[in-house]
Structures are given as structure tokens and as C-alpha cells.
Specification:
The protein has six helices and twelve strands. It has about 250 residues and is of the alpha/beta class. The chain folds into three domains: about 80 residues, Translation Initiation Factor IF3, CATH 3.30.110; about 70 residues, 2-Layer Sandwich (Translation Initiation Factor IF3); about 70 residues, 2-Layer Sandwich (Translation Initiation Factor IF3), CATH 3.30.110.40. Helix 2 packs across helix 3. It is globular. It starts with a strand and ends in a 5-residue tail after the last strand.
């Protein structure tokens, strides 16, 4: 085994280039060899992508877990054949990922894709919650196509059709909607219903045509669950707000 002392600091690269560089490094890596890279956040989605593409030949060792410096040693434990079609930009096999990591892995990776890129998702069951989030968050900005559906395997191709919006890479956001076409009473209901549907740690983004601060005070007065209110955009006719449901203090 050749344990390299070289370290690749990918923090200087844009996210999509980080994945391209690291995937190529692993693809060209002889069995038994390794490399170390440094990232500015937990690169766990890349681990699942490596396993999805190359199989169970990925050694993954955290050497450092600092808030702005994550250091990982990646080892190719055996030879393998890449299993990704030429027209697929990235492959995520959910059967190789912990279910608690599904959303983080998929939406983190989707946020780094370019328009026209295709993500192939493989699973042993239909990922209904994932599909619903795509519909809510990226309506009109993607296509979702089932390539295979049987009792043992589901294969889906998700094609990205538009550039990232300001909230696209925020994996906590599971819903996004525009209240501007609706009357004030309906806007209130839409926001409160969306909040009720959230789990702690999840968020939604809504767009209004003026500062919706009165709605903030209504939520504060009428709602018993803690939340965070964050302005993402404050334009004359487009106010974008992120609302997150927080964990209740014990």
C-alpha cells in the first residue's frame, strides 16, 4: 500500500470543480493507494458518490474535523469498473447510503450540478419524500424521469434545467413558493401550513411583494414552536424570506 503524503486542498476550487478533481484522482488511483484532501465542510456526500460509481472499494478516513478544515484520507481498496452511463453526470446509489443522509447527499450534489447535467438515483424503493422536495423546491427547474421500476430496484434520472437560485444549495430548504398571486388571507394560510409541515431543522422559502414582517409577528404570537426568520432578498417587488423550524429547548 502506498499512503501518499500529498494533500490536495480543494477549498480554493468552486464546488463542481472539487468533485471533478477528486473523482478523477480516485478513478486514476491504483488499488492500495490513497490520497488526502482538505475541504471546508463535511464531504460525506462525496463518499456516497464514490461508492455509487466505483463500488465497495472506497476507504474513507477522517483525519481532521474542524469547522473550516475537514481532512480526509481516501484509499482505493481494490480495482473496480465505473458503473456510470456516459450521459449521466453523477450517480448516487441510495442503497449504499444511510437513510438519514439521503437528503443531504442528494441536494448537496444537485446544488453543484450545472444546467443540463443529469443525476442518476438508484434505490431499492421509490424515494417519495425526495421526489416531493424536488417538486416543491425546484418546480419547473428540473425533470424527474423513472428509468426502471421493479420490486428490487428503482432508477431515476433528474435533469437540472436552470441555474441555482439563491437558496438552491441550502439543504435545509424543503419547500419554496410564491405568495404574490394570492390574496392576503391566503398568503397567511400558505405560510402557516408550510410551517406546520416542517420537521425541526427544515425550512421553507417564500416570496412576497412587500416586507412580510407583520406575518413574522403573527407567527410569533400564534405559534408555540420556535422558528428562525431570515431575509434572503429585499427588492422593491420581491421579498424572499427563509423560515426554519428550530428544535424545542428541553
Amino acid at each position: 500500500m502506498n499512503i501518499t503524503t500529498d494533500e490536495f486542498d480543494v477549498r480554493i476550487l468552486i464546488p463542481i470543480k472539487r468533485h471533478e478533481k477528486l473523482l478523477k484522482l480516485f478513478k486514476d488511483l491504483p488499488a492500495g493507494d490513497s490520497f488526502v484532501f482538505i475541504n471546508d465542510h463535511d464531504p460525506k456526500p462525496l463518499y456516497y458518490e464514490f461508492r455509487s460509481i466505483f463500488g465497495d472499494v472506497v476507504g474513507w478516513e477522517y483525519l481532521q474535523r474542524d469547522p473550516e478544515e475537514w481532512k480526509v484520507r481516501v484509499t482505493r481498496t481494490a480495482d473496480s469498473e465505473a458503473d456510470k452511463d456516459n450521459d449521466v453526470s453523477t450517480l448516487i446509489d441510495l442503497r449504499k447510503a444511510d437513510k438519514k443522509d439521503w437528503k443531504y447527499t442528494l441536494f448537496h450534489r444537485y446544488g453543484m450540478m450545472l444546467p443540463g447535467d443529469v443525476m442518476e438515483i438508484r434505490a431499492s424503493e421509490k424515494p417519495e419524500e425526495i421526489h416531493q422536495i424536488f417538486q416543491n423546491k425546484f418546480e419547473g427547474d428540473h425533470t424527474w424521469e423513472y428509468k426502471k421500476q421493479d420490486d428490487n430496484e428503482t432508477i431515476i434520472h433528474v435533469t437540472k434545467k436552470a441555474e441555482n437560485d439563491i437558496d438552491a444549495t441550502d439543504i435545509t430548504v424543503v419547500n419554496k413558493f410564491d405568495v404574490r398571486p394570492h390574496p392576503p388571507a391566503k398568503r397567511h394560510d400558505m405560510v402557516f401550513e408550510a410551517f406546520d409541515d416542517l420537521k425541526p431543522g427544515e425550512a421553507f422559502v417564500f416570496i412576497n411583494d412587500h416586507d412580510p414582517k407583520p406575518l413574522y409577528y403573527q407567527m410569533e404570537a400564534e405559534n408555540s414552536e420556535p422558528f428562525k426568520w431570515e431575509y434572503l432578498m429585499t427588492m422593491p417587488k420581491e421579498w424572499k424570506v427563509k423560515v426554519m423550524k428550530l428544535e424545542e429547548e428541553s
